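Appendix B, record 7
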Amino acid sequence: MDQDESGDTLRNRIARQGEDALGKLAQDLLENPLVTGAISRAFEARERAVSAQETAMSALNLPSAADLERLTRRLRSVSQRLEGIEDGLDRLDRRLEEAAKAAPDERLSAIESQLAKLATEVAHLSGALDAGPAPVPREQERLEVDAPAKKRAKAKAKAKAKPKRS
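Structure tokens (predicted):
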């Protein structure tokens, strides 16, 4: 192959020069106001054509591609939900079959034992509710802020003076 002193082949030099020429041509075209105006008008015409097409399809009561895509996504979503419901129904059906196979006496005894547990829990909670609230520790008592200081002092003195009954 022909090589010059820098080691580039003829093919590489031609490719590089072609790329440079194409880049310069593209840059010149983009800087030309006539070309950019034509491109802008072409895009505007495309937008008007799309708008006219949507209007015509709407007038004919035909769905657009976007409408079909939304409908397809919605249909897939409903299909997945339906599969989940079917799986849940299958599990429920299996559980009902298992429950039907169990002897009625076993089921009745299981229900009675569960009822007994619930009755003891209710009795325990009822006893706990009948008991009065736990006394508040002295450190957590609230002071009356609105009462005048003299009235509080008299109330404390009366409380100390009262004899305790046994």
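Remarks on this record: The radius of gyration is 45 Å. The mean pLDDT is 83.
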